[in-house]
């Protein structure tokens, strides 16, 4: 099983960062060339959304469900169908006195058993790049002046 952990310090209130992280349109705005279907606005426990994006010129889809939520502190989404054998993404948010520490923990397995595991280094590198890109873009959004296009104050 592969795992990626990313910690991002964000100079913004925890409630804002938490809500931006679970907002479908904010997510799409902070990911390169991604679309979403099946949900809009703030994701809640049990909501499902399908993200679509091209990777290496090939179209990919991943449908995820929010399987756990502790308002403003944590939520988890799990792949229901998609390119991985399995994928669980835990998002945690802690106040640190100057803002919020957002932690992304992504655990994944490759499809196709031992043959699929040969592709794990490439998948890990690409997934790490997407997690890093999204975390940096979310930080910029939360710290800037445009976050209120997605959230009410």
How would you characterize this protein structure?
The protein is of the alpha+beta class and 153 residues long. The chain is globular. β3 and β4 form a beta hairpin. Helices cover 28% and strands 40% of the residues. The model has no long low-confidence stretch (mean pLDDT 93). It is built from four helices and seven strands, in the order βααββββββαα.
The major beta sheet can be summarized as: 7 strands, antiparallel
Order of helices and strands: EHHEEEEEEHH
For the secondary structure, the number of strands is 7
Helix content: 25-40%
**What does the average pLDDT come to?**
93
Strand order of the largest sheet: 1-7-6-5-4-3-2
Low-confidence stretches: none
Count, helices: 4
Topology:
Blueprint: E1 2-10, H1 14-21, H2 24-29, E2 35-37, E3 48-55, E4 58-70, E5 74-81, E6 86-95, E7 100-109, H3 113-117, H4 120-143
């Amino acid at each position: 099983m592969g795992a990626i952990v990313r910690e991002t310090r964000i100079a913004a209130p925890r409630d804002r960062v938490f809500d931006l992280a679970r907002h479908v349109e904010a997510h799409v705005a902070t990911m390169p060339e991604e679309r979403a279907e099946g949900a809009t606005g703030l994701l809640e426990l049990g909501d499902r959304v399908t993200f679509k994006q091209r990777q290496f010129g090939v179209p990919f889809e991943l449908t995820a469900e929010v399987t756990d939520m502790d308002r403003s502190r944590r939520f988890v989404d799990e792949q229901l169908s998609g390119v991985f054998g399995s994928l669980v993404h835990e998002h945690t948010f802690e106040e640190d006195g100057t803002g919020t520490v957002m932690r992304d923990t992504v655990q994944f397995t490759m499809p196709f058993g031992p043959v699929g595991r040969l592709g794990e280094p490439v998948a890990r590198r690409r997934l790490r790049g997407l997690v890093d890109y999204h975390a940096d873009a979310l930080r910029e959004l939360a710290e800037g002046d445009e976050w209120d296009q997605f959230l009410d104050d």
